[in-house]
Design brief:
Shape: globular
Strand content: 15-25%
Number of helices: 32
Number of strands: 31
Helix content: 40-55%
Oligomer: single chain
Radius of gyration: 32 Å
Length: 943
């Protein structure tokens, strides 16, 4: 009977909400249709280089029934649970890891699930207020698909927290109205899930928003009921305690790890002011591509961090909601505070308040202030829904007043671009180009303004149909805005394994290889400094290009153009000058931001062993120049014609003894970064990286690779022109770098072999080749050194390592909490240790080495260390040391010994206990409510 009643109530609930749920579901299906079809996946930026390999390694740990307390595959070793990037205990991901899914597929399912959950959560929260279904649907669509959420789609550790905020607000709202034990547990579980899953900064922002709403809502509901306030306080206290206990896995290990990272010191002021949101950037609220797209962005730093687009309809509706305070005052107050916070903090260096907080050293670690736009888009989502809900009840006069007020507020928001444009010519030029550059977006803005005017002025707008039209039009605008905001990668390319994977996954290798991967290592490319005159109507350039592979897709051109240039260049590809062009491409020169420019077109399948002629012409006066070199062979010489619209005969007669620097590019069969195993992608093939690991790294490790291995530098050369791996070859060997990967094109000479590296394989990935090398001089994982110098300061050690006479086989710099007795017995500089070293066990949290030393020596294991690593020699605890500023080390007596390095984190031990207490407490509270109801029922029967 009860099941039948519940089913009937569920059907009734779905029937009442059918229109709003249809809008949310259709928007979700349309937005992610390419992913649903299996044609393309999200595989970009941090999702590719951090979260995909991290999720891959998490899956391996979970399959083996172990906690990822430490992994040697990230950098030279890193504590994963303490990292604060993506939580291992993210509930959805834990469940997905039980399925036979590729790590990248798990992330695609995660994206689909969380974005649906975020829109449904905001819908449910707004319906509780209550607002009409279509108004709540508008709020749900805005929250999940506005600029902040879509801009951070590639940041898995953002959306796993922010898209649960509406669910947390719904749970809090329910608890405020009726404080119960079950309600406390629900709030605690949602809050703990966010803390366990997301990045600490955005989790904190989300909790502040929830706490603010709780205070506003709780005070309003308890104004005339002190007992209710006490009950609510007790319920919230219980929820907070349980949430802290359950999320201890995210809090305690991170707290333990932070002092060892670069965040242990204050962030430089320049970084605190970096990524500030300029007031004139508000133009992107309605034109998100005003400063270019993902590839051609030229606006303030950076494209995704400052994303906050919402569209013109939500802006007008949000402004109208702030002009009316008769209903839903709690939500309006919450939204107003969030908007004020965003304006004061997201603007960073443009905000007097933020600058004062930085200058007074009150803000010392809060980098990327632009992320406070999260508050702005959240507030607009709530306010737009409230305004759309209230319009059906307003009189004509009140609607007209709201239209006037919202027009003024929206104009003030967009005014900075009008103020800045006269002072910045490029802004003014971009505004004039809007009709041609973004016609669809202009039409959407015009339609949005018309819809707002209809809602606020026409009598027919009181119909629910007009509300539906406004919500659908706002959703369509967000769909157009977000469709290309995060470029997708063809599934067959994203899932293609690196060709080097098999060579690196050698079954005969007992220890993981260490990889140094970069696009450019030791190589020589064809360069030139001579340039053509700028292309203009009076200057046309043509040149031949020979193609040696099928599927020609692009032509790469080294070019130069002024930042303030304008106009367009037309490139035509001919098989013969007497034939029609095979391909035609127009390039907008105002978007040129790189030296290396690609001219891409539909692939030409049968391009192998063909010679084409490319003609570049323009009807504008441009600053576009091509690079050239001398050329004596007529078949490769260019044609320079000083007349508009030259004929084929003009081109034949205008041949010059020069060649245009250009190279073909082909259909890629693999993602270049993935094929090169760049950044942390190396972890998916079981290799550790000798380069960048991202934010919140072990400080000594990060300082080491930035100083010696160029980390992520675009210029990995010293003042004498030596590449980092060449200038610091001794340290590269000492760090145990066994393999290197780089990208080569046909016009590139490989210098790695001459430098002493051996080639282990070369594979084509379409536009270029990737080449894998072995380093025959790489040190073993563990080795002995007989002479040690005590130097605990990392910067002093790195300065000493720069000395050209430093030999890591003979000398080691030791650090640690307590110095050993130095020098070691009978040791002198240059006296190598006679020894046998054998790594018998190599696991993520335990390393065992059998050592036979002729005399007292230092054992070095070239993995990073932290104080959580403990040394045990022959079963007895031994002092903790670091070698050469960051490696594991132990002072070993003469003779035969077994040395163990064990990872033991007090924070993780404490987290196990606290989470268990949290689960028990939550279970007890959940049992209270049914027992209480049963007691009341028995008491009623007895009475």
């Amino acid at each position: 009977m009860q099941m039948a009643i519940r089913w009937k109530n569920t059907r009734r609930l779905l029937h009442r909400n059918r229109s709003g749920l249809v809008v949310l579901l259709v928007m979700w299906l349309l937005f992610f249709s390419r992913t649903f079809s299996g044609q393309a996946v999200y595989f970009l930026d941090d999702l590719k280089i951090i979260f995909y390999p991290l999720e891959h390694v998490y899956g391996t740990f979970q399959a083996n029934g172990r906690l990822p307390v430490w992994s040697p595959l990230f950098g030279f070793g890193h504590p994963l649970i303490a990292w604060g990037q993506l939580g291992f205990f993210t509930p959805l991901h834990v469940l997905l890891r039980l399925l036979p899914l590729h790590a990248l597929a798990r992330l695609q399912v995660s994206i689909l699930t969380y974005y649906l959950l975020g829109s449904l959560g905001m819908y449910a929260f707004l319906r509780r207020q209550p607002v009409l279904p279509m108004a709540a649907a508008l709020g749900g669509v805005l929250y999940a698909y506005s600029g902040f959420q879509i801009g951070h789609l590639n940041h898995v550790n953002f959306y796993t927290a922010t898209l649960l905020l509406p669910v947390l607000l719904t749970a809090v709202d329910r608890l405020c109205q009726r404080p119960t034990a079950a309600g406390s547990v629900l709030v605690a579980v949602v809050g703990a899930t966010m803390a366990l899953s997301g990045q600490p900064q955005v989790v904190l922002y989300s909790f502040i928003a929830a706490a603010l709403y709780t205070a506003i809502r709780g005070i309003r509901l308890s104004t005339h009921n002190p007992r209710h306030l006490l009950q609510l306080g007790a319920a919230l206290t219980g929820a907070t305690v349980i949430a802290l206990l359950l999320s201890s896995w995210a809090i305690l290990p991170l707290r333990e790890f932070l002092p060892l990272t670069e965040r242990a010191q204050d962030i430089p002021v320049t970084e605190l002011l970096d990524f500030s949101y300029p007031p004139y950037n508000t133009i992107t609220l309605i034109f998100p591509y005003f400063f270019g797209n993902h590839d051609t962005y030229w606006g303030p730093k950076g494209f995704q961090e400052l994303a906050a687009y919402v569209g013109i309809i939500p802006l007008f509706l949000a402004a109208a909601a702030l002009c009316d305070w008769r209903q839903h005052r709690s939500l309006r107050l919450l939204a107003l505070i969030m908007i004020a916070s965003a304006c004061l903090l997201a603007t960073g260096k443009y905000s007097p308040l933020y600058r004062a907080l930085v200058e007074q050293h009150i803000i010392t670690n809060l980098n990327i202030p632009g992320r406070f736009v999260f508050y702005f888009t959240t507030a607009v989502s709530i306010l737009a829904a409230l305004a759309l809900d209230g319009l059906t009840t307003y009189s004509r006069r009140r609607q007209a007043a709201l239209l006037a007020g919202s027009t003024v507020l929206t104009a003030l928001l967009l005014a900075p671009i009008a103020v800045a444009a006269p002072r910045v010519p490029r802004l003014a030029a971009r505004i004039s180009e809007l009709p041609a550059a973004m016609p669809i977006q202009l039409w959407l803005v015009a339609a949005g303004l018309a819809a707002v005017a209809a809602l606020l002025l026409w009598p027919v707008s009181r119909s629910r149909a007009w509300q539906t039209l406004a919500a659908v039009l706002a959703a369509a605008t967000l769909l157009v805005y977000g469709w290309q905001f995060n470029p997708l990668t063809p599934a067959e390319v994203a899932f293609a394994p690196s060709p080097a994977a098999k060579a690196l996954n050698d079954e005969n290798r007992s220890l993981p290889p260490r990889l140094y991967a970069a696009q450019h290592l030791l190589r020589t490319t064809e360069t030139a400094t001579a340039r053509t005159e700028p292309l203009s109507p009076a200057l046309t350039i043509a040149w031949p290009i020979h193609i040696d592979r099928p599927n020609l897709t692009c032509i790469r051109l080294p070019v130069s153009a002024d930042q303030n240039g304008h106009g367009s260049i037309t490139f035509r590809l001919f098989t013969a000058l007497t034939n029609p062009p095979l391909r035609t491409v127009t390039l907008d020169t105002s978007n040129l931001t790189t030296f290396d420019q690609k001219i891409c077109f539909d692939p030409i399948a049968a391009s192998q062993e063909q010679t084409y002629t490319i003609i570049a012409s323009t009807a504008d006066e441009t600053t576009f120049r091509l690079f050239v070199r001398p050329e004596s062979r007529p078949e490769y010489q260019a044609h320079i014609v000083r007349s508009p619209n030259p004929t084929a005969e003009d081109l034949r007669q205008a041949i010059k003894p020069i060649a245009i620097l250009a190279s073909p590019a082909y259909t890629d069969t693999a993602d270049e970064e993935s094929a090169l195993l760049m950044r942390q992608i190396n972890a998916v093939v079981g290799a550790s990286s000798a380069r960048w690991i991202g934010a919140l790294s072990i400080k000594n490790y990060r300082d080491f690779i930035e100083e010696f291995f160029a980390n992520d530098s675009d210029e990995p050369f010293d003042g004498d022109g030596h590449h980092a791996i060449e200038a610091n070859r001794t340290l590269l060997n000492m760090a145990g770098v066994t393999h290197l990967l780089q990208n080569l094109t046909a016009a590139t000479d490989d210098r790695m072999l001459a430098a002493g590296f051996t080639r282990d394989g070369r594979w084509s990935i379409g536009s270029s080749d990737i080449v894998l090398y072995q380093n025959p001089d790489a040190f073993p994982k563990a080795f002995l050194v007989s002479y040690a110098i005590w130097q605990p300061a990392g910067d002093e050690v790195r300065a000493a390592l720069h000395n050209s006479t430093f030999n890591p086989r003979e000398t080691v710099y030791l650090g640690g909490p307590t110095p050993p007795q130095l020098p070691l017995a009978d040791a002198v500089p240059g006296d190598p240790a006679a020894a046998a070293v054998d790594v018998t066990q190599y696991e993520s949290d335990r390393i065992t080495v059998d050592v036979t030393a002729a005399k007292e020596s230092v054992l070095v294991v070239n993995d990073t260390t932290t104080p959580q690593w403990h040394t045990v020699i022959d079963g007895r605890p031994a002092p903790y040391f670091t070698a050469n500023s960051m490696f594991k080390a132990a002072v070993v007596p003469a003779g035969r010994h077994t040395v163990e390095f064990r990872y033991d984190s007090p924070a993780i031990r404490q987290s196990k206990k606290m989470s268990l207490v949290g689960f028990i407490t939550a279970g007890c509270l959940l049992a209270v409510s049914p027992l209480k109801r049963s007691w009341r029922r028995l008491h009623s029967i007895a009475a």
